[in-house]
Amino acid sequence: MKPTVLYKYATPNTAEIILENGRLRWSNPSVFNDLNELQRIPCFEPTVCESYQNLLKTLLDAACGRLALDANRLTPRTRKILDQVIQGLQVGKSESELLGVLCDFKPSDADQIIDKGLREYFALLAKKGPRILCLTSTYNNEVMWGTYAENHHGVVLGFTAALPDSPFHEVKQVTYSDRPIAGSGLDFLLYGDTPELRKRTIEAVCYSKKLAWSYEQEWRLITWRSQESHSDHGDYIFYPAELESVTFGVRAKPEVVKTMCKTIHKKYPSTTIFQMLHQQGSLNRVPLET
Which of 47, 75, 106 is nearest to 191 (CA)? Predict the structure, then answer.
């Protein structure tokens, strides 16, 4: 379930620029802290090679009527194997004989070939100007306050999909794993590069990170701007109604708060202003009277 509000941690200077210009910076993943952005190629589990014996048994079960299989969805190569199994049964060959013959079809380097193809595809995709806006589902992440908001001197900006055409409607959650999984090797052997598999593969590359980053609780928006591929970022407008809140850090300087509040009242009249307080060992957010 998508959060109602998503947050962007920012330093005081960055926040002032964002509020003054009404624009958010969407960056090329090549400049992110995580060097693996758009580099983690998903795998099949079990792998294609590991699934091959299961494929042979599946096709044999289908040919013998023990399993319902949509033959029209099969890849041409797999359909050819199925047809050979059916022909073999018709001339009286045993199931064990057929399994022995079918093993000759087993590719030993299938997973390496798939991995190489995917890496080439995403290398080309990376040249099309990916722009990513990273957000998070929480405003009280102590690590992120320290890392991205200048150790509580900065702010957290809260955004919401307040308009019908808001890009925030398209936000997707990042998943965290040692390596992303695109699907089953058996499904790939049966049905090939389906639209569903391609979608899962793209999402696995674009919306997954290693477990070490899970503390960020990230959600992200991605767009592709090939005409801007020469730069590392793009600054794109957001509407005043989309800025749900501004939360100042515990150490925010009074003069910074005063300056930003002036801008907020002028340009974002519907935005709620908060202050983080450190009370008895925990962070609490309270409305800020201005």
Answer: 75
Beta-carbon count within 10 A of 67 CB: 12
Read off the pLDDT band of 107 (50, 70, 90). Answer: low
Amino acid identity of 180? P
pTM over 0.70: yes
- The reported pLDDT for the residue numbered 188 is 92
Residues 268/273/276/277 CA torsion (nearest 10 deg): 160
* Inter-residue contact 248 to 276 (CB < 8 Å): yes
pLDDT digits (tens, 9 = 90+) for 13-43: 999 999 999 999 999 998 999 989 988 999 9
Which residues, other chains included, contact 282 with Cβ-Cβ below 8 Å and sequence gap of 6+?
Answer: none
Contact indicator for 117, 203 with CB cutoff of 8 Å: no
d(CA 35, CA 101): 46
pLDDT in tens, 131-188: 999 999 999 999 999 999 999 999 999 999 999 999 999 999 999 999 899 999 999 9
| Nearest of 153, 141, 167, 159 to residue 10 by alpha carbon | 153
> Could you tell me if 244 and 272 are in contact, meaning their C-beta atoms sit under 8 angstroms apart?
yes
Q: Angle at the Cα of 166 (from 164 to 168), degrees rounded to 5?
A: 125
